[in-house]
Amino acid sequence: MMGLVGIITMTLSFGASATAAEPITASSAPQLVTITIPDRAGEIPSKWLSYAGPPRANVLLPAGYDPSQRYPLLVLLHGLNSNYAWVAQSGLITDFDGLNAIVVMPEGGSGWYTDWWNDGERGGPAWESYFLNEVIPTIMAKYPILPQRQYHAIAGVSMGGLGAVYLAGRLPGFFGSVASLSGFVDPRFFSAITEPGMGLTALAPFKGDDNFDPVDGPPEGFYFAGHDPGLLTTNLKQTRVFESTGTGIPSNAGLSERAATAAVAEGSVAESLIIYPMNQIYHAALTAAGIDVTYQVHSGGHDIPDFSTEIKAMLGWGLFQPVAVNPAAWVNRTVATSGQLWDISYRFAQPPNQVVQFQQFGTMLSVSAAGAVLTITTGGGCVIHTVTPATISVPTQDCP
Predict the structure, then answer these.
(1) Residue 44, number of CB atoms within 10 A of its CB
(2) Burial of 339 per CB tally in 10 Å (0-12, 13-18, 19+)
(3) What is the model's pTM?
(4) Do β-strands 177-181 and 152-157 pair in parallel, antiparallel, or remain unpaired?
């Protein structure tokens, strides 16, 4: 039987050459355009890209796009061994016909949408920081996006499913809905193989990164726990979640379009041995946490026809439904050095040395031990410095 790392490498990889997409010329049709989203902070060294930088993104503008109007936003994350162009090159763009929203497909390399641990250095590649600090602000500045949380969704396929559920929890006040499509959502599953396998599939040893667990660190470590969706379910408490997985039994869609091909066979193995069990575990964690999740299990493997089926099911579920706006109580767990949680931003003087829990109830905000001084900035501009653990009364008035 093929080893787990081999299965991860061969069957969760979606190769794509990095060619710029040509805009569709008909003004009444959706338009696919390619933009660059510069890495101004040096978070993604060029060696992690499959083309000459800066990083790119594909953007699908809806039919009849009018820049004087505002639109919902869907951020769609690609899978492993691929790039920003994979959705278009796989023929999946047409699945979004009729969606009156702007769909952004950013570059994610094979970086697992994570700031890599790298033996505690937390240096490049820093994919989650690039996404939060560069991708989202650039899109919001460049395109007319509706401001309400209800109209912001993030979704991903395979590795992108892991990225979607993790990043939605990093920015809960922004994303109202999240969808994981055949997502690699439980890195604890065979973690002794999976975690080093994540670095191998990203070709880390061939790009000068010789750490054994470069992405999330040792499976028993706090940084790994801080990137494990199954341990971060409370981060999605106020978020609508769509989760979809195949069982590995070939579907009619897969067989009709790619009958008897190696891709279908490999995809079936990947879905049955890795993706399906991961999603069963993750769904149980979401349910136990009381998360608003819609879970769809279907026949099918890890292949393009079945991804198309999942995309259509996600769109039928509805990405832009009403959600909570300013919840009076919330919990968020993180290992990030800085971030935005609803109407407060936080920054630790040093990277946390453990998983940190933020919990707000009314005007009271409690923060567990982090091993570093914390600075909180409220939506009203109030700045609070404190050691941790701490319980803070959050001012309700604006500060001068």
Answers:
(1) 23
(2) buried
(3) 0.91
(4) parallel
